[in-house]
Each structure stands twice: as C-alpha cells, then as structure tokens.
User: Fold this.
Amino acid sequence: MLSQIVLLLVTGVFAGILGSILGIGGGIILTPFLTLVMGLDIKYAIAASIVCVIATSSGATIAYLKDDMLNLRVAMFLEIATTIGAIVGALLSGIVPTGFLFVLFGGFLLFSVVNMIQKLRGKTEQKSVKASVDSLAEKLKLNGSYYDQVLDEQIDYQVEKVPGGFAMMFGAGIASGLLGIGSGVFKVTAMDTIMKMPLKPSSATSNLMMGVTAAASATVYFFSGAILPQIAAPLALGVLAGATIGSRIMQRMKPKVIRMIFIPILLFMGIQMVLRGFGVMI
Assistant:
C-alpha cells in the first residue's frame, strides 16, 4: 500500500510538471498510467485525472497570476465558448457520429503539428509577436504583456482572429462533452496558432481555463461515485507539487524548447484520434 502511494505521488509530480509547462493538465499521462500500469477501470482513471487537472490548474495558476503571466480576460472570454460547447456536446451525445469527430479533431491536431514545426524552424526567437491589429481584441481588451525571464524583458503582444479562437474553443468544448477528452491541447493550440498569442501566456492561460472546465466535470463524477480517494488524493498532492515546480521551470525555458516537448504530444494525440475515428485503438 505504501509503495502504491509513493508511486502515485511520484507520477503525480511528473504529470504536474509537464501539465503546467504545456498547459495540458497532465491527464494525457495519468489516464494511460492508471489504466495500463495500475489496471484501474477507465471510468475511475478519468475521474482521478479530472481531480488532478484541478490540482494542476490551482498550483500553476497561483504562480502564473503572481508573475502576471496569464491573460485573465482571454481565459474568461474563451471559457464562455468552451462551456457552451461542452453543453452542446453533451446534448448531441448519441446523435453525431463520434468517429467523424475523432477524425476531424485529430486532423486539426496534425495540422497544428505542421504549424508548430514551421514556427520551430523559424530563425528568430519569439521576442516580438507579429499579429495584426484586431478591433474586437482591442474592444474586449484582450491584448496583454508579460515579463520573459529568458529574454530578460517585458513583451507586449496583440491578440488577433478572436472569432476564430472563440469558434475553436466552442469546437473543443463540443469534443470534450461528446468524446470525454480533455481540451487542454486545443486551448493552447487555439491561442498559439489561431490567436497568435505567445506560447508562454497561452500555456499559462490554458492552465486556468482547464481548472474551470474540470471543476464542473468533477462534480458529476463525484456524485456518481467514480472518484476513489485512495487513488485521487495521492495523485492530486503530487500533481499540486509538480505544477508549482513546473510553473517555475516554464518561465526559464525558451519557447523553442517548449515547442519541442509539445510537438510529439500533439502528434501522438492527433494520430491516436484519427485512428480511433476509424475504429483502431492504440
């Protein structure tokens, strides 16, 4: 029993570090670990992962708020789209063919991989973010600024294509409600690829948004009895510690390095979703 608790704590720390750096919550690590390594039923694994997403969000968001890294206005604005999308997804459950959606969203993730590789191959560091002036972003005051510890300077950035980012988050919400998947990857991709936000604020903002979304889901799992305290509690403690550590590490990493970590995860998830759409499980 003690060895299991230690294993869960260590795994939680690792998932929390990676989740807070990339803004993906850590569920992509925890769910496969709990099902494949510990032999836990998928329902309980997902429930524990959702609790840990809240822990990741809490630990990372406190640090990112303190350092003025996340964009609170963007988070609250996009969360409207995600929440509405999740409700629509739940209502459409059983009507829309899930295979089609898996292929659609998997294809988008693979497209994002190509986009990130192009950014990775760019010769200039992400010192200044070139985004066109967006009147809607200015009206909603979505443009932001953050201090980059690697470059040792304050970076101002503009947000563009607000309707496109909102639509993407609505689609991510539908996918989350319909397919039961986390949408952290979609959140970061929407902000980084579509809205042209720098990767660091995108990741920080995604961490906050995931906690809001996961809190609603956790309530459902709690009342259904799917949350096992003996599994979720050690994992959440580890994740909380890992998220705090990861938020510090991320601020000292170059955007290029973060992309190098993010691309394989996007590629894996994209391929996995496309294959699941065609009935192939990996």
In short: Confidence is low (pLDDT under 50) at residues 123-128. The first strand starts at residue 144 and ends at 148. The radius of gyration is 18 Å.
